[in-house]
Design goal:
about 0% strand, 13 helices, mainly alpha
């Protein structure tokens, strides 16, 4: 609830601005482990009461991570990327000579160590949230590969048929997804929803390839990706309703990309009515993005709408209308998409690139 005191210059609510500033400062103290979490929550609620605002929940782990990011954390992140890259290059060089259990150990031990370090820093309240999130994310990214290697350790992948490989990939991604979801529940970092979202899409594609191995694989996989995209977007909306906006971003973005890619492939494979859906789905997502909770769908939908406009235009009208006329029509359609995106961004109150309103 606003205080009713407005700034004479910008028209914003002064009480809300003060509350956000103080809450940000309290979150920074909490991220540096200078105050306890209970004390941080009590301080934020007390500020809200004094400013006659409704008590708002303190900034979650995502906000703490962003405010705790320092130059030292940047060097830590760069170092982690370089170390992982060197390990990947070294393992790639000797990968073919390794046995199944050696490969499992090479990938499994870093995943276990990553999760263990994240849990240790969580229990001991040591280190920045960036450190915990970094190690937990590394463990989550490796989880599906660890399960895959555990399934393949006793045998060799060379003697497997395509359907058998799809079956094992389905099991591996399902097992990895369970580990990733457990990490989200345990650590609560928003970044952990990204590997879980990607793994879910991967699992959907592998599962569809296993069950429909003798049918049109492209159509089956595309349909599975579209369904997975819808489910991920619903998951993101569930986070949004709980006030976890940072947690919602990865499922919404990955879900929108999976949905749009699925309908694009369906349009290319099936044609006819599927082409209309390949245009209608991104258009509907763009229009729905006028509501803040659907804002992450805006740019993926705009990009895929332009892609499908060009694809359909070149497939259907390049021979009859001629290539120049087709490109002209596609250009006009793209300009229309740009205008719609501009209007939606204005509805959302997003700033223009030139800084003007």
């Amino acid at each position: 609830m606003a205080t009713g005191r407005q700034c004479p210059h910008c028209g914003g609510d002064i009480g809300s601005a003060i509350h956000d500033c103080v809450a940000s400062w309290i979150s920074t103290l909490r991220a540096r482990n200078l105050i306890a979490e209970d004390l941080a929550s009590a301080l934020v609620a007390d500020v809200a009461r004094h400013l006659e605002l409704e008590p708002a929940p303190p900034t979650g782990r995502s906000g703490q991570i962003i405010r705790a990011f320092t130059p030292s954390m940047a060097f830590l992140l760069i170092g982690a990327i370089l170390v992982v890259s060197s390990v990947v290059m070294l393992v790639t060089h000797f990968w073919e000579e390794m046995g199944g259990y050696d490969r499992l150990a090479v990938v499994g031990l870093p995943a276990i160590i990553s999760y263990a370090v994240a849990e240790w820093t969580r229990r001991r309240h040591t280190g920045s949230p960036w450190v915990q999130a970094l190690f937990a994310t590394v463990g989550s990214c490796l989880a599906p590969f660890v399960v895959w290697l555990a399934l393949r350790a006793p045998g060799s992948a060379e003697d497997l048929q395509q359907r058998d490989v799809a079956y094992l990939v389905s099991l591996a991604t399902a097992g990895g997804l369970l580990l990733q979801l457990s990490a989200i529940v345990r650590f609560g970092f928003a970044i952990l929803t990204l590997p879980a979202s990607v793994t879910f899409v991967w699992m959907a594609g592998a599962t569809s390839e296993y069950f429909w191995a003798h049918s049109r694989n492209g159509v089956a996989v595309a349909a599975a990706l579209a369904v997975a995209g819808v489910l991920l977007m619903a998951w993101g909306q569930g986070f949004t309703r709980q006030g976890l906006t940072w947690h919602a971003r990865a499922p919404q973005l990955v879900g929108a990309l999976a949905l749009l890619f699925g309908f694009t492939v369906l349009g290319a494979e099936v044609g006819s009515a599927a082409d209309w859906w390949a245009i209608a789905v991104p258009l509907l997502l763009i229009l729905s993005a006028s509501r803040p909770q659907f804002a992450p769908h805006l740019w993926p939908a705009a990009v895929f709408l332009v892609i499908n406009i060009f694809r359909i235009g070149l497939e259907r009208f390049a021979d009859s209308a001629g290539l120049p006329v087709t490109v002209l029509l596609c250009g006009l359609a793209s300009m229309a998409v740009g205008y719609v995106v501009h209007r939606v961004r204005r509805e959302l109150g997003l700033p223009r690139s030139d800084g003007q309103d």
